[in-house]
Amino acid sequence: MAQQKIGFxxxxxxxxxxxxxxSDDTRQVFFNITDKNNVEYEDNNLILSREEILKxxxxxxxxxxxxxxxxxxxxxxxxxxxxYDKVILFTVSSGLSCFYDSVQYLLEDYKxxxxxxxxxxxxxxxxxxxxxxxTMLNQGKDFFEVLEFCRxxxxxxxxxxxxxxxxxxxxxxxxxxxxxxFLNALKTRPIINFDIKNKLGGVVKxxxxxxxxxxNNFKKVFGPSIFKEQEYIVxxxxxxxxxxxxYIRNKIVxxxxxxxxxxxxxxxxxxxxxxxxxxxxxxHIRGKTKASGRDKE
Length: 297
Known about the structure:
Strands 10-9-8-13-11-12 form a 6-stranded mixed β-sheet, with helices on one face. It has a 4-stranded parallel β-sheet with strand order 2-1-6-7, sandwiched between helices. It is of the alpha/beta class. It is globular. The chain contains 11 helices and 13 strands. The mean pLDDT is 90. A hairpin with a 5-residue loop joins strand 9 (189-193) and strand 10 (199-204).
């Protein structure tokens, strides 16, 4: 029996654009980003680039997103199904967006040909999952084995972010203004986990405490072995002050006993950058063993 041809759809939360992601078997659909003046941008990192988002925040602009239209997905899906037997859509974490839920109805319309994976992630981990899935298929792995691998991929991952204050989360509608006003008055900053909707990973009072809290979240999810055994660690450096960035790098080296050249450093995808704004950063880790208890989420 001939190997089935599999196509893929990703959204802009993967943090890759254009030639970085497009290929014969892969298409991309984009979220929309709207500023406070109701000017709408497609999240393709062209007009509204990462650097421009940070610049606009300094000028007092604010942003929010709207989920990808299922109609956009269906157009791309129809195109891929002209060539490919089955198509998998990787969506941004359902904890961050309603996109995953909004496209569920397409499963019935394209039964046995269309499949959806809630990545419970953003950025680098989605890119590595896509690459791993393609490699497995090229090696002749069964489609449903690969699909199950993708659906369980998050069990080995965890990501936490922090902002300088609560205001960006208020502007994006994720935290009530009254709550934010109280927490800002206390000079606290949030730790945010995007795998589950509206889930806070903690509240801290300083930049240094935020770094330590994220490490503690890793320990809570994976156990202490994560500091000795991990596949990789990503530092989402959203152009924070270099002294703070270096502090984080040194702490990663100290905690995980790796050299600085092993740290993967990059911007977070725009979809998250607009919620976290200037002074924000995050850490993402992939363990070599499954995180205890995550399969119960």
